[in-house]
Input
Amino acid sequence: MKIKFGSIVTDGRGKLGGQVYARNRSGAYVRNKVTPNNPQTLYQSLQRAVLATFSEAWRGLTQQQREAWNAAGESFPTTNQFGDQVIPTGKNLFTRLNNNLTDISQSTLTNPPLPAPIVEPEDLEADANADAQTLTLDFNGDNAMGYKIFATPPLSPGVGFFKNKFKMIQTLSTAPPGTILLTDDYLARFGAFQAGQKIAIKVVPVVAATGQKGVGKTVAVIAVDTP
Output
């Protein structure tokens, strides 16, 4: 649970007791905490294993390298839930950048990099065919970037808020040369979709040399039957 103090309390994020404190376009809200029946999914287990690997790798660095990562945090600030700027610790920065690099099949870093420009993807277009069960994506990218591709499960066509529904389904080590077929990865993660359902896809760039992650762009598509 994270609390932002003013004269008393001005905002809150996270879990406390049986409630979750969050914010959407309508403002701050509180909802009951729901625990999934089986939170230990394969994807979660794999992610925890990766984080454990980097925790061990951090301990294997020299003291000089750890000090360099600690100093580099000033060059890689992040924004927290309240919109405030936060300077990461050396360990957090080491883990975050290398986790992103691992996702796009790039070599991990033992020494901190210098910040590099992040180029966001452009001109996203997607197509979903329910009869053929095919899902494709096109976008213009940059060869200095790798990409994480996220998708939502099949949704009602009226849903317009996707932030908490995205799951990573595919990664690219460089910009795509053409149309990307997402079908197998999507069906393995979410199962079949039907005509009239909405699927949102988000493409997040990662600088291949540094591991910096961009904001990403989103496109939504309504699945159709074959004409």
Summary: Residues 204 and 215 are 6 Å apart (CA to CA). The mean pLDDT is 87.
